[in-house]
Amino acid sequence: MNLKGRDFLTLRDFTAEEILYLTDLAADLKKKKKEGVPVDRLRGKNIALIFEKTSTRTRCSFEVAAHDLGMGCTYLDPKSSQIGKKESTADTARVLSSMFDGIEYRGFGQEKVEELAKYSAVPVWNGLTNEYHPTQMLADLLTIREVFGDHKGLKLAYMGDARYNTGNSLMILCTKMGMHFAAAAPAKYFPDPALVEVCREYAKESGGSVTLTESAEEAAKDADIIYTDVWVSMGEPDEIWEERIRELSPYKVTKELMSHAKDSAIFLHCLPAFHDLKTETGKEKGEQYGIQDMEVTDEVFESPQSKVFQEAENRMHTIKAVMAATLGF
User: Fold this and answer.
1) pLDDT tens digits along 38-73
2) Helices 134-148 and 308-327, interaxial angle, to 10°?
């Protein structure tokens, strides 16, 4: 399969076969990494990483993957890039693509990464936008396949705010790959109806399904994967913490909620997670609202069912696969 020159902006642009190809390539690259087999076949190439939203996993994944492939890597943090400030997105794309072989963007609106891709002469990769998180989805799929051996027919239940990048992208992934997606939240947190309809069309082709419910127990029933994410995303105002904690606490992933899933079910989270009070934000919100955790309890997070660190490692292997495939590995 030839994906050379392709952008990686959203899984909506890729077929199930292409998604599976990238996941299989990631598994092969992971195996080679563990065996110490070098894969630095992209020596002489260079990539630029534009981060308008900071991240531990995304930055480290791109940098380590680039180095493993033999490439140079330049990191542009929110203070280092003039994109959208003194230089337009289009001009930034034309400048950077004259110097680099690939560009990663992690930031806010999807329209910005789409504009970068429109004006770039080299592949552009979406490290996260408000609407989509495609590299995370490949890591999730690889983790699911490592645990279960396959993905077809499995049920993934997402707990919490499903309106943004993770919820949207999980729904796309599941329905494209023949999985059953269930989101549990108050109705105001359901994904955009237009995207739901698109995904239901994907599901007709793949044998998957979409279920939106206000019952956490209904969504979790017989699930193979329970998934959640932070309740307040980077860039959202502090004043919404109280509202999110009040409205989403019934969807916290607890041991009792996990009991509604299959005995073989796993827990996934794209991280960082507020499962205790050992972070500045966790401690602050704990003191402010009298809570010990937020979207998941420490008991679940640290349980054998939790595959969050395997999932986090797989970010690097799947990002490596995306860059390798689109740069002509």
Assistant:
1) 999 999 999 999 999 989 999 999 999 999 999 999
2) 120
- Distance, in Å, from the CA atom of 23 to the CA atom of 4, rounded to the nearest integer, reads 16
Mean pLDDT of 285-300: 97
φ, ψ dihedrals at 207, nearest 5° = 90, 10
Rounded to two decimals, the pTM is 0.97
Active site residue ranges: 106, 133, 136, 229, 270, 315
Instruction: Report the distance separating Cα 11 and Cα 199, nearest Å.
Output: 11
- Name the residue type at position 163: R
Angle subtended at Cα 43 by Cα 26 and Cα 83, rounded to the nearest 5 degrees: 80
* DSSP per-residue letters across 206-268: HT-EEEEES-HHHHHTT-SEEEE--SS-TTS-GGGHHHHHHHHGGG-B-HHHHTTS-TT-EEE
Strand-by-strand arrangement of the 209-213 sheet:
209-213, 180-184, 155-159, 225-228, 266-269
Q: At what angle do helices 308-327 and 16-35 cross, to 10 degrees?
A: 110
